[in-house]
Specification:
The complex is a heterodimer of chains A (958) and B (74).
Chain A (H helix, E strand, L loop, with lengths): L18 E6 L2 E6 L4 H7 L25 E2 L18 E3 L3 H16 L15 H8 L18 E2 L2 E2 L13 E3 L9 H10 L4 E4 L6 E4 L15 H5 L5 E3 H6 L4 E6 L8 E7 L2 E7 L12 H5 L14 E2 L7 E3 L2 H19 L4 E5 L5 H15 L4 E3 L6 H11 L16 E5 L3 H4 L1 H12 L3 E5 L8 E2 L2 E2 L2 E3 L6 H14 L5 H7 L2 H12 L5 H8 L3 H13 L3 E5 L1 H4 L4 H14 L9 E4 L6 H6 L6 E2 L3 E2 L3 H11 L11 H10 L4 E5 L3 H4 L3 H9 L3 E6 L11 E4 L8 E4 L4 E5 L11 H11 L9 H11 L8 H7 L1 E3 L43 E6 L24 E4 L1 H6 L7 E5 L4 E8 L7 E5 L27 E7 L5 H13 L2 E2 L6
Parallel strand pairs in A: 1-4, 15-39, 16-17, 16-27, 18-19, 18-23, 19-22, 23-24, 27-28, 28-29, 33-37, 34-36
Antiparallel strand pairs in A: 1-2, 3-4, 5-6, 7-10, 8-9, 11-12, 12-13, 14-15, 14-29, 20-21, 25-26, 30-31, 31-32, 33-38, 34-37, 35-36, 35-38
Chain B lengths: L2 H15 L4 H15 L2 H12 L7 H6 L11
Classes of the chains: A alpha/beta (958), B mainly alpha (74).
Bound molecules: iron/sulfur cluster (SF4) (3 copies) and FE2/S2 (inorganic) cluster.
Amino acid sequence: MRLIQETDFGTPASRTEKTVTLTVDGFEVTVPEGTSVMRASMEAGIQIPKLCATDMVDAFGSCRMCLVEIEGRRGTPSSCTTPVADGMVVHTQTEQLKGLRRGVMELYISDHPLDCLTCAANGDCELQDMAGAVGLRDVRYGYEGDNHVQTRNGDQPNMRWMPKDESNPYFTYDPSKCIVCSRCVRACEEVQGTFALTIEGRGFDSRVSPGMHEDFLSSECVSCGACVQACPTATLTEKSVIEIGQPEHSVVTTCAYCGVGCSFKAEMRGEELVRMVPYKDGKANRGHSCVKGRFAWGYANHKDRILNPMIRETIDEPWREVSWEEALSFTANKLKSLQKDYGKNSIGVITSSRCTNEETFLVQKLTRAVFGNNNTDTCARVCHSPTGYGLGQAFGTSAGTQDFDSVEHTDVVIVVGANPTDGHPVFGSRLKKRLREGAKLIVIDPRRIDLVRTPHVAASHHLPLKPGTNVAVMTALSHVIVTEGLMDEAFIRERCDWDEFQDYAEFVSDEKHSPEATEAYTGVPAGELRAAARLFATGGNGAIYYGLGVTEHSQGSTTVMAIANLAMLTGNIGRPGVGVNPLRGQNNVQGSCDMGSFPHELPGYRHVKLPEVREIFESLWGVEIDPEPGLRIPNMLDAAVDGTFKGIYIQGEDILQSDPDTHHVAAGLAAMECVIVHDLFLNETANYAHVFLPGSTFLEKDGTFTNAERRINRVRKVMSPKNGYADWEVTQLLANAMGANWTYTHPSQVMEEIAATTPSFANVTYDLLEEKGSVQWPCNDANPEGSPVMHVDGFVRGKGKFIVTEYVATDERTGPRFPLLLTTGRILSQYNVGAQTRRTPNSVWHDEDRLEIHPHDAEQRGIRDGDYVRLASRAGETSLRALITDRVAPGVVYTTFHHPGTQANVITTDYSDWATNCPEYKVTAVQVTPSNGPTEWQVEYEEQAKQARRIVHAEPAE
Amino acid sequence: MSPDKLVRMANQIATFFRSKPHDEGVAGVADHINNFWEPRMRAQLFDLYAQGGEGLDALVIEARDKIRPVTQSA
Ligand code: SF4
Ligand code: SF4
Ligand code: SF4
Ligand code: FES
């Protein structure tokens, strides 16, 4: 193993197809037109000295290190800003150039501290490298003159010197080492799109400054780390590097947070992780990342992490640490006796969208092959199950149609019910980049999300609909397109069922679906909606990106179908730049669905009722598979309360915090006799558990994650599991304790089993992933390289299906008792239930959930910004602090759900999507009133949680 | 689960299929329930039918004969 060094070509690649040929130092090289001389030389293997250029940002041409001579041209142009031309003859090293470069270097070094030996960047500093490259041997100017290095000039304080800024928890800014190359500024603008940094002052005075002369933490900075990665010196440096030192080897792996699935180099020193650096070859992220993936991995070593198995007879006892053998035989005996007493369907599993494909596959296999039932579900139930159902009906397969690169070819984007800059930050950055290039944006969301107005990006239309009226708004868009004759008839005739389209066209053309008619209950101004529809239908390549604001509704599945209708209507399927793109919440939501986590389908989305599909698994596993669908999570909880569901194995999920209607979840868990939680921490669900099996982090195991673009990415082990076993091994131990005879020794063998049984994975192997880096399913004989874009020549189901989408108001309505609508979401720095991110310094950005409320609603209730308020629905009540803002419309309130103390899900109800039981998180009728602190429930809960977390540690063996 | 909740879930499904032609709607409701409802839930639905099906949408009532009987015990 070694430290992976990615080549820095100095300037970004040119995308033109036309090529030109030039000669660099006698070598001929052919490159695309528009390439810089610097990049062309690097392609030929000749590295021209440089400081202000790097290939993640456009060239700026300020440092004058990269000078070259070009035959027939006067002077010494900088190679980073000079484009190649046919027949050009370039010399990179001449007496003149050597002298000039040394002179430049001398000036830089004369204003730079000479503490190289003790500098954190020692060994990873481009200034140091360049000093070496140009042969700098002495510096004629001393530090007596003007400089930024010394705190004092003689007996006077040096007014140019600035102290270090250590406000960001993950990196430091040391202005005394800055060479003002502006790479950080350009990275923040071009890659991240936040525009948090500027160069303040001019000439020798100039310095990098976050915001208006603020520190990093108080500025607009979102801590993505792009500037740190871009900085050629120690000026911006990870605190972990300062603490530990430079890494010595690195391993490519995949972020375990969100569905973007960014690739990273985990840079290591032995088994210690030094830093995570986004991998340029990562096809989802192209070298970028967000604060979570790059920095928030400290939870892996957090003191709260549980490393030993624990058991207890009842949940009011303290936990008892035991050996793995004891924990597993205790568990197996309990599960077996439950099945004996209450029937084989009395137990089940929940798979995790945070775990690998291989782990998920084994957990569903556990229930199907060992427990003998189909009681398996996954937390995707509560987020994207409507995507599966809706897209399955319309197109014939349950997945996004594009890759993330596709956005680079998009002309009009609809973002509906998603907040990419917070929820899917790297995609958000890539989207913003495209919008800055001129693509148009339509946002459909009750709340004014950041994208609506952010530096150098503004939405053409924001349709601030009332929560719960998605179907009406999407159908109204189609109404405009059909009645104004803007649909793509050729596409529809060729690709879709024409009769079904006729029915559909008749349905949407009805006056009652017009924007004018629906405005009364959607709250969306008709004119704005019409303009948005026209833009989408006529603006070129149109792509729709959506999130949980679409799915987590009574009509979630219907909205997904309405989105599919809109894409087919406008011919926006089957090529780059278009498509229907669900933004998946957790890292492996796509994978956990693919792997047969749902109770009605085997891996590859095939219903358990189909004998030919069961047969594939039956013959391989040597068992009989139950043809009846199993219980979904909400059904499991209902059955538990009814007394027919008694035991559950939950891998890597915290249903008590993440699922709606907390009281009901708690009652279900409390009614079970054997709850097994397999996780890193004693999460909220574990308060009701009898067995705790310690889990491993993504750094401690091998496997694969499948991101929102169907991309299968490798997860690679960089350190040994602190708890002793990778999660797939724990599941295997449990299966074997129950009498199975599994003998996997590596997750690649599980992938072989997946490929052998699941047609869309037929050609996936670890060798292929090694070779290609990643592949997008379907990957089989028909698509041996995988499939970046789906439905290219035809839909998976044959003809695309238009489905009539009648709007039905949710039963959840406001009234005198609960006059406001609550909707929920997430924030950049925290992740989901926060189990990981709350255990990192990310909490400096978000240490509590706040309730956003419009100034008008706040004033009516006598609520001031920061006041504690009581938030009540018919399901329950909680309290939190108010944040007064006009981002939410009057009548709507909004909160995040990252902190267990808030328990926002005490408020949400048990209403759910008609087709999939995906809970209706996004609409709850509530009342907000002033309060002086935590509710009785919060106090009780706190106390109960404390009791439930007591541990009696095992005596260390003598 | 509470009968009210089961009735609401069944009726939600019926609501979606109401916009289809009648026969297709009835078949749609039955298929959906056959595909996604675990035997315990179907058993409970049959109990409701036996008690007169109070509160159930007309489409759900009509779908009764097309819903797969429950053979195994829980
Ligand atoms: S960390 Fe990211 S957002 Fe913050 S200044 Fe650097 S590039 Fe900009
Ligand atoms: S902080 Fe680093 S990247 Fe930014 S201008 Fe200074 S040296 Fe260049
Ligand atoms: S959380 Fe998402 S966007 Fe951020 S680094 Fe991880 S995968 Fe990428
Ligand atoms: S690298 Fe070309 S001018 Fe700085």
